[in-house]
Write a structure and sequence with these properties.
Mean pLDDT: 93
Radius of gyration: 18 Å
Distance between the termini: 26 Å
Oligomer: single chain
C-alpha cells in the first residue's frame, strides 16, 4: 500500500485536534485586560498542547519521508497514536479549567505518556516493515530522545499528585527536547 492516504488522514486528524483545542478557549465577557486573567491557565495549557501536537505532526511527517510503503499493522499502529492524540484536547481543557490541579495534570501526563508509547510502537512497526538496515532504522537508532521523554513522563505523572507545577515544568522540558526538529531522518535521507 502507498503511504499517501495514511499521511493525509493523519494530517486531517491532527488539524481537527488543534481546532477542537482552540475552540475550548472561550471569549471573555468584558473589554478589560482583567477579564483575560481567568483564561491564563487555559491559554497556557493550550500553548503546551499545541506545541505537542505540532511536534507529533512534524516528526510523523519526517518519519513517513523515510517510509516506502505501509502494511495493515502500520494502519493500526497509526490509529493507536491518533487515538491518544485525540484525547489531548479533553485533558488540555480539564487541566486548564482546573488551574493545573493535581489529578488533571497527572491525567494529562498519562495521555502524553500513552501518545509517546504509541509513537514508539508506530516507529517499531515501520522499522520491522522496512528492515533493520533501512534508512528509517538507521535514523532512529536507539531513540534516546524518545526513551528519555517516556522516562520523564513516568516521573512527572506521580509527581503531579503532590507537586503539579513540577510536573508541568517536566512536560515543558520534554516539549523543549523535541521542539528543535529531529534531523536524524533528514541526515540519513540526504546521505
Amino acid at each position: 500500500m502507498t503511504k499517501g492516504r495514511i499521511e493525509a488522514f493523519s494530517d486531517g486528524v491532527l488539524a481537527i485536534i488543534i481546532t477542537i483545542m482552540v475552540l475550548e478557549i472561550k471569549i471573555p465577557h468584558g473589554a478589560t485586560l482583567e477579564t483575560l486573567r481567568p483564561l491564563i491557565p487555559i491559554f497556557v495549557s493550550y500553548v503546551l498542547s499545541f506545541i505537542y501536537v505540532g511536534i507529533y505532526w512534524n516528526n510523523h511527517h519526517h518519519m513517513f519521508q523515510a517510509v516506502r510503503n505501509i502494511r495493515g499493522g502500520t494502519l493500526w499502529a497509526n490509529l493507536h497514536l491518533l487515538f491518544w492524540l485525540s484525547i489531548v484536547p479533553t485533558v488540555t481543557a480539564w487541566m486548564g479549567e482546573n488551574n493545573f490541579a493535581p489529578v488533571p495534570v497527572a491525567c494529562y501526563g498519562a495521555v502524553l505518556l500513552m501518545a509517546g508509547v504509541a509513537y514508539a510502537i508506530l516507529t517499531q512497526v515501520l522499522i520491522r516493515n522496512h528492515g533493520k538496515d533501512s534508512a528509517l532504522a538507521k535514523a532512529i537508532g536507539k531513540d534516546s530522545k524518545g526513551n528519555l521523554s517516556l522516562g520523564i513522563y513516568l516521573v512527572a505523572i506521580p509527581t503531579a499528585l503532590a507537586f503539579p507545577a513540577v510536573s508541568c515544568v517536566l512536560y515543558f522540558v520534554v516539549a523543549l527536547i523535541w521542539l528543535y526538529p529531529d534531523k536524524r531522518i533528514e541526515r540519513v535521507l540526504v546521505d
